[in-house]
């Protein structure tokens, strides 16, 4: 359909919807790898276009559908691994938050940085711990992520794991060397949040 429109009806490639999404954003959201390849080939700049939230197609692919084929198609057409949405989150943080293990593995293989911090100072490993994605936490740790990294409140991934009662992640992080006595800005250890009803804002 996309190829037909391009050939015979002159599809307007720079058109945007109310969210400032391009046709490539929409094809990515629907997981249509064939349409992605056609659109990205017709207009390579579209791969780097951002919607009104500052999200590129790659960020959307890592967040919404978690399909390796979609992420690979975008990378094959020059998608930027370092692209970030307005909050500072990128493809690696979204993949970690959603537990998209195969996508995360691909992003790491392609050179995505594990050291990026979004606006609140959270890294991919923090998001993986929040979501109780044990295998994701393990992959990040084994790929060189700093398990002791802190956000702006001084929270480590262990603080998030205790706060959200993710005991499997707690055990894994401690096994990977995270200091259970490390304190946040309030002087509290991760374990002290285990019995709190502390709200975590994403």
Automatic annotation (TrEMBL):
Which controlled-vocabulary keywords does the entry list? ANK repeat, Repeat
InterPro entries, from UniProt? Ankyrin_rpt (IPR002110), Ankyrin_rpt-contain_sf (IPR036770)
Q: Where are the ANK repeats?
A: 53-86, 87-119, 120-152, 153-185
What Pfam families does this protein map onto?
Answer: Ank_2 (PF12796)
Q: What is this protein called?
A: Ankyrin repeat-containing domain protein
């Amino acid at each position: 359909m996309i190829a037909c429109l391009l050939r015979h009806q002159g599809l307007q490639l720079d058109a945007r919807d109310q969210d400032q999404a391009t046709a490539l954003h929409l094809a990515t959201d629907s997981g249509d790898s064939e349409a992605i390849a056609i659109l990205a080939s017709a207009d390579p700049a579209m791969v780097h276009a951002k919607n009104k939230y500052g999200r590129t197609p790659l960020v959307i692919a890592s967040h919404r559908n978690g399909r390796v084929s979609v992420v690979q198609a975008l990378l094959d057409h020059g998608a930027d691994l370092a692209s970030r949405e307005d909050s500072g989150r990128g493809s690696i943080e979204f993949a970690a938050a959603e537990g998209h293990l195969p996508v995360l593995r691909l992003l790491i293989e392609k050179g995505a940085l594990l050291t990026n911090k979004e606006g609140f100072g959270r890294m991919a490993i923090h998001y993986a711990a929040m979501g109780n994605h044990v295998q994701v936490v393990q992959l990040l740790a084994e790929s060189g992520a700093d398990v002791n990294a802190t956000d702006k409140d001084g929270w480590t991934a262990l603080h998030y794991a205790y706060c959200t009662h993710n005991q499997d992640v707690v055990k894994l992080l401690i096994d990977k060397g995270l200091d259970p006595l490390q304190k946040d800005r309030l002087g509290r250890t991760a374990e002290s949040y285990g019995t709190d009803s502390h709200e975590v804002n994403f």
